[in-house]
């Protein structure tokens, strides 16, 4: 039987693993500012619509995004306060580089 602490740790690890992907981090950084169509998101994060669809499916599975359909266009927006808080923290640490999907290289110390 897992304790509530270990369940919380497992949930946190799953969330951080999901958000640890460079493209998903960039997708969510755009979606906290505005509701965007799939095509617009694809352009902003430089992904094909099929690749973007895979990322959006994972974000939907964790209930981090919400969708709205207007005729044939699907719009996405962020529905997670946890994502908003994480992106604020990432911005405080690394600056606005996250939106540009610029790789941040952290230097390893010691082995």
How would you characterize the overall build of this protein?
With 111 residues, the protein is α+β, with helices and mostly antiparallel strands. The chain has a single domain, classed as Orthogonal Bundle (Arc Repressor Mutant, subunit A). Helix content is 55%, strand content 13%. The chain contains 5 helices and 3 strands. Strands 1-3-2 form a 3-stranded antiparallel β-sheet. β2 and β3 (73-78) form a beta hairpin. The longest helix has 16 residues, at 4-19. The radius of gyration is 15 Å and the shape is globular. The N and C termini lie far apart (35 Å). Residues 100-109 have low confidence and may be disordered.
Q: Can I get a quick summary?
A:
With 111 residues, this protein is of the alpha+beta class. It is 55% helix and 13% strand. It has 5 helices and 3 strands; from the N terminus they run ααβααββα.
Topology:
Layout: H1 4-19, H2 22-31, E1 36-37, H3 38-45, H4 49-61, E2 65-70, E3 73-78, H5 81-94
Antiparallel strand pairs: 1-3, 2-3
Question: Order of strands side by side in the largest beta sheet?
Answer: 1-3-2
* Topology as a string of helices (H) and strands (E): HHEHHEEH
Contiguous runs where pLDDT drops below 50 for at least 5 residues: 100-109
What integer is the average pLDDT? 85
Task: Provide the CATH architecture.
Answer: Orthogonal Bundle
Based on CA atoms alone, the radius of gyration comes out at 15 Å
Please name the defining characteristics of this protein.
alpha+beta; 3-stranded antiparallel β-sheet; Arc Repressor Mutant, subunit A; globular; 5 helices; 55% helix; 111 residues; disordered C terminus
């Amino acid at each position: 039987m897992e304790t509530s602490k270990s369940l919380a740790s497992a949930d946190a690890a799953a969330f951080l693993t999901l958000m640890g992907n460079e493209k998903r981090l960039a997708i969510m950084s755009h979606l906290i500012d505005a509701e965007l169509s799939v095509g617009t998101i694809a352009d902003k994060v430089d992904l094909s619509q099929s690749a973007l669809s895979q990322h959006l499916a994972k974000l939907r599975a964790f209930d981090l995004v919400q969708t709205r359909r207007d005729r044939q266009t699907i719009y996405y927006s962020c529905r997670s306060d946890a994502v908003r808080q994480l992106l604020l923290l990432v911005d405080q640490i690394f600056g606005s580089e996250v939106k540009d999907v610029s790789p941040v290289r952290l230097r390893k110390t010691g082995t």
